[in-house]
Input
Amino acid sequence: MQLPKALAFDVFGTVVDWRTGIADQVTTFLSQHLPGTDPALFADEWRSLYPPAMEACRSGRRPFTLLDRLHFETLVQLVESKGVRAAQLDEGELLDLSYANIALMIAMNRFNGLVWDAILGAEFSRSYKPAPQAYLRSAEALCLEPRDLCLVASHHSDLAAARACGLQTAYVDRPMEYGGALAPDRDCEQAWEWQANDLMELARQLGAA
Amino acid sequence: MQLPKALAFDVFGTVVDWRTGIADQVTTFLSQHLPGTDPALFADEWRSLYPPAMEACRSGRRPFTLLDRLHFETLVQLVESKGVRAAQLDEGELLDLSYANIALMIAMNRFNGLVWDAILGAEFSRSYKPAPQAYLRSAEALCLEPRDLCLVASHHSDLAAARACGLQTAYVDRPMEYGGALAPDRDCEQAWEWQANDLMELARQLGAA
Output
C-alpha cells in the first residue's frame, strides 16, 4: 500500500462530535419553544434534512448555496414541522444555531486547538460532497494526484464517493455518530484502504505516530 | 478607531521576503542557462510581468487561471526574452520555479512555522487582487462586514483597493521589497488606519502583543 501524501479530513462527525455539540446547543432553545423535545433526537432530525438540501444544489435545481443558509432553512423547516412559527422567533436565535462555514470552522478550531494546513470545504470547491468536484478540487489545490490524497471519514457514503474519484480512503469508527443506531449509509461499506478505531490508531498505521 | 475583528495578510512581500527567496532559488538555474544575470534583478523582472498576467484574468480577457500557470507562462516569456529557448529546457526546472498556490503556501507555512486560521487566496475567491471580489469574499468567508476586516500589506496599491471595498488597512514597511528602489505603487500611498515598521509593532498597536 502506497502511503498517501496528504490526508483530507471530514470534520463534522469524524473529527468533532457534531451530534452531542448540537444537542447541547439546542437544549435552551428547545426548553423555551418545544419543551419535552429530546435534544439528541432533534439533532438527528435536523441532520436528516441536510442531505436533501445539499442534493438540491448538487443536482443544479438551485445554485450553490452556503451551508449556513441551508442549515438555516432546514432548521426553519424542522421547527415549523413541529408547530412553531419561525417568523415569531428571534431570527438571531435561529441564526446562532445554523452557522456552519469557514468562520465557524475557525472558531471551532481555535476553541479545540485544532491546527490545519488549509480549510478546503464546500466554500472552497463551491460544491458539496459527495459531488466529485468536492474531492477533486482538494487534490488539485494540493497539487496531488487523487491517489496520493486520502480522505479520512467516519461515513461510508463519503468514503465511497472519494474512492470513485480515485482517492485513498480511511475509515475511522465513531460508534456514537448516530447515537448508537445503525449507520444510514451502511450499504456503502467496503474494504477501505485504512480502517481504525480512532485517529491515533490511524496515525500509527500511517507511520505518523 | 474601531479595532478590526480579523486581519487578512498579504503574504508574498509582506509576511515573507519573496524577492530574496526567488533570487536564491533562481541562482543555480541562471548560472546554467543565463550566466552573468543578477538573480535579484531577474526576480524583479519576473515580478514585473505578474500584474499584466493577472490583469488579463481580471479583465475577463482570459478565464480565471491558477497563479502557478501564470507564473510559469511569465517565466517562459522572461527566459525567452533573454534568448533562451524554453522548449529546450527541462520543463521540471521551470515548474519548480513557478509553483505558487495553496500547495506552495502550505509547504512554506510548514517550513517557516507559520500558522494561519485559513488560506483565503486567489484560489478561494477565484479572483486576483485588486479585484473587489478578492477582498469581499474574504470578509464574507469570515462572516464579517468589510469594515471589521483589516488587510495587512506592504503594498500601497493593495491597500488602496482594499479600502475602496470598505476594509480597514494596515501598512507594514518592507524597505527592501524592491531592493531599495522606489515603490512602483507609491502614487497610491494614503494615510492608512494602521501603519507600522514591522508586524510586531502592528500587533502592539492593535493591543495583541
Chain A touches chain B at residues 68, 99, 101-103, 105-106, 109-110, 115, 117-120, 123-124, 141-144 (CB under 8 Å). The first helix of chain A runs from residue 18 to 33. The first strand of chain A starts at residue 6 and ends at 9. The mean pLDDT of chain A is 90.
